[in-house]
Amino acid sequence: xxxxxxxxxxxxxxxxxxxxxxxxxxxxxxxxxxxxxxxxxxxxxxxxxxxxxxxxxxxxxxxxxxxxxxxxxxxxxxxxxxxxxxxxxxxxxxxxxxx
Length: 99
Hints:
By secondary structure, this protein is an alpha/beta fold. The model has no long low-confidence stretch (mean pLDDT 86).
């Protein structure tokens, strides 16, 4: 399974990279929502795990762009916020879930 993880927090990316990149199919990438869109287009992962709140283009905005182009995309949002508004919007966009 190809898993792409996008988060703009360097510590989160470093931690996930340490844990998950022992599998060559997992790519942990730090960056922005814009980078998520271009990386999704290029890598076509089985699952995209993406931070819901990032500077510039948010995870929600990036997810909306990705799902507009690829409605079959499996996106899970990663968040430390328990704000129902984010969760509801993510699920309405077509995300498969959130952590």
